[in-house]
Every structure is written in structure tokens, then in C-alpha cells.
Amino acid sequence: MAKKKAPINEEEEEDEDLSSDPIYELNDLPGVGEITLKKLKTSGIMSIRLLAMYPLSSLMEDAGIGEKTAKKLIKAAQDIEQMGFKSADKIWEKRRVMRRISTGGQNLDDLLGGGLEPGAVTELFGEFRTGKTQLAHQLCVNVQRSHEDGGLEGGALYIDTEGTFRPERIIQMASAKDMDYQNTLQNIVVGRAYNSDHQILLVKEASKIIEEKNIKLVIVDSLIGHFRAEYVGRGTLAVRQQTLNTHIHDLLRISEMYDEMAVLVTNQVSSKPDVFYGNPITATGGNIVAHGATIRIFLRKGKGEQRVAKIIDAPNLPEEDAIFSITEDGITD
Ligand code: GTP
Ligand code: MG
Q: Within this chain, do residues 49 and 167 fall inside the same structural domain, yes or no?
């Protein structure tokens, strides 16, 4: 039962997994028969790793599994995944060889320590037209490029909540890099989310597509829009924040459960007149989003095509500025 990553090119399929660890599948777990297996898979829990990271209450709710069984399943999965402590050198070993997705701008890549980081949720936040959607499009193209060219040789999954995904723009950006645009478009899977429940569902279902299409980048553009619009007349702010919190944790889990997976979310800054203008901490979604995202990038307008990016509270990056431009060909310095 060899675990294979779905290849983007057929040739890559020959890559063999050389590790000697036995590889388990969900139905190898004690007590997982056909019915439980089906419940897990219909809720998008496709692997032991995802199961091991699933919170108990979500497993019970999403898969309709009773508490006792759910606890047992998570425990068994965690044992296999060895989710206890790790020594720091093992963590360093992984980060040292980590590849990143180039944004297209050298300054911005430098600011990010080489580009968009897999294994983390990065948040782009800023006012309208600051380039959040443009950067998201560019990363969908760049993730597909070779390692030498700053890509991860994988596809992108784009959850579009505002109807602003434009294949035309992908064609421009791909052509500017001499990439075959048909092929580039084929490697981007787009889900149009019509409301917040639908958005949550699309994220939960993403894992079904991720392995099949060798996805290395998941985007939600924008994360908060639907929540902000819908929860006005629907329950309290507390309910909204709680739902949003679970949603962000679903995204965090996606970023962590695959060997090389970047997650990017966008977020509009609310222009609250009572808050000092320009304070980047006033991104919508409040603390929930701020604490959920691993790396936060604040975008603002510069001269003409120029935009300015600033890192806000990333674990290991300096709070500096980088300038990039939005041009016909895409993102550049
Ligand atoms: P909201 O979603 O409204 O919050 O904004 P956003 O931050 O997502 O902005 P977006 O990424 O859509 O950026 C829009 C900016 O990109 C505008 O200033 C456009 O002028 C610029 N832009 C979009 N397409 C092109 C293009 O083909 N050529 C050039 N030069 N600029 C473009
Ligand atoms: Mg946008």
C-alpha cells in the first residue's frame, strides 16, 4: 500500500518513497470498517494525518461519529503520527530545506525570507485595490513553476468568495513567463463560495482534491467578506467569531498536514472612522484572524503601480517594508 502523491507530470510518478516507515491508511486503524471509513471520507478526512489533527468536537460533528469512537480514532491516529514532542534539530532540519513560492517581486520575496512559506497560513490584508487579489493570482501561477524558478511544482486551489477570480489575468501572467497558459489554467481549481457556510464546506472538501491534483497552495480570497455581511442580522458577534475561528483552524490544519502546502488568505481592512487611520491592526475579523494566521502582511498603496508590503508579527521575520508593482505582466519589483 504505497502512499503516492498525485503527480503533476506523469513522469514524477516514478519517484519512490524511500523511507522505511510502514505507511498506514485510514482503514488500517482498529475499529474502522466500511461505514466509519465512508463517514470520514465524506467529511473530507482522507488521511491518518488529518484525523490525528482533528479536534474531537469537530470530528463528532463533521463525520457524525459518537464520542467514544471519535476519541479512540484520534488517539490511534496520533500514535501512528507520533504527535508528541520533537527535538528542535528535527524541526530545523525540515525548515532548512523548506522551499518557498516566489511572489514575483524580489523585494517582497526577500522580506518573506524567500517567498510564501508552506506549512503556514499567510494573511494579506489591506484596503481595496492594494493588490491582494493580484498577488493571489500571481501565486497560483508561480506555485506551478519549477523549484529553480521559485515554484513548488504543484497546483493551486482558489476559493473565490467575491467573484474576482479572472482566468484572463492568469493567462497574462503565465504568458509573461512563457508558460503554457492552458496547462496553467488546468492546474488551478476554483471554488466560488456563495456564502459563509458554503465557504466553510469548500475548505472541508478541499482535502479530497488536494492529493488528486497535487495542490501546493490553497487560497481564500477573501476570508471574511461573507462573515461580515451575513452575521449582521444573524446571531451575535460571538457566534461569528467562533465560526470564523473554526474555519481558520481548518485552514491551519490543511497547511500543516501535507508535506509542502502553503495557505494564503486575504482580508480587507475596515475603515472604522473611530480608529486611527492607517493602524494596520484593524483588519476585519479582529483577534481571531490575527491570532490564526502565522504570517501577516499589511499592504498599502504607493505611487502608481507600486504597492508597499509590511510584515506584521511573523514569528521570525523583521517588521520591514518591501515595494512591489502590479503590472500588465503580473507582480514584479
Ligand atoms: P479588494 O478585493 O477590493 O479589497 O482589493 P484587492 O486588494 O484585492 O485589489 P486587487 O488585487 O484587485 O488590485 C487591484 C489593482 O490591480 C488595481 O489598482 C488595478 O489597477 C491593478 N491591476 C489589475 N489588473 C491589472 C493589469 O492587468 N495591469 C495592471 N497594470 N494593473 C492591474
Ligand atoms: Mg480582491
A: no
Residues 139 and 60 both lie in one domain: no
Rounded Cα gap, residues 289 and 224, in angstroms = 9
137 lines ligand 1 (CB under 6 A): no
CA of 130 to the centre of ligand 1 (A): 7
For residue 168, report the distance from its CA to the centre of ligand 1, in Å: 13
Report field, pTM of the whole predicted structure over 0.70: yes
What burial letters (b/e) apply to 128-139, b meaning 16+ CB within 10 Å?
Answer: eebbbbbbbbbb
Pick the last residue of a domain from 81, 112, 128: 81
Domain containing residue 70: CATH number: 1.10.150.20
Ligand 1 atom nearest to CA at 169: 27
182 and 128 co-located in one domain? yes
For the stretch 244-259, pLDDT in tens is 999 999 999 999 999 8
State whether the beta carbon of 305 lies less than 6 angstroms from ligand 1.
yes
C-alpha closest to that of 140 among 116, 119, 161, 124: 116
47 DSSP β-pair partners: none
Express each pLDDT in 251-296 by its tens digit.
Answer: 999 999 998 999 999 998 865 544 444 444 455 566 666 667 889 9
Q: How many CA atoms lie within 13 Å of 314's alpha carbon, on the beta-carbon side?
A: 21
My answer on whether 76 and 145 are in the same domain is no
3-class secondary structure, 218: strand
191 with 46, same domain: the answer is no
* Residue 11 domain flag: no
241 C-beta closer than 6 A to ligand 1: no
Q: Is 284 in the pocket of ligand 1 (CB under 6 A)?
A: no
Do residues 33 and 154 share a domain? no
Encode pLDDT of 97-148 as tens digits: 999 999 999 999 999 999 999 999 999 999 999 999 999 999 999 999 999 9
CA of 21 from ligand 2 middle (Å) equals: 44
Domain range enclosing 55? 23-81
What residues pack around ion ligand 2 (CB closer than 5 A)? Answer: 132-133, 164
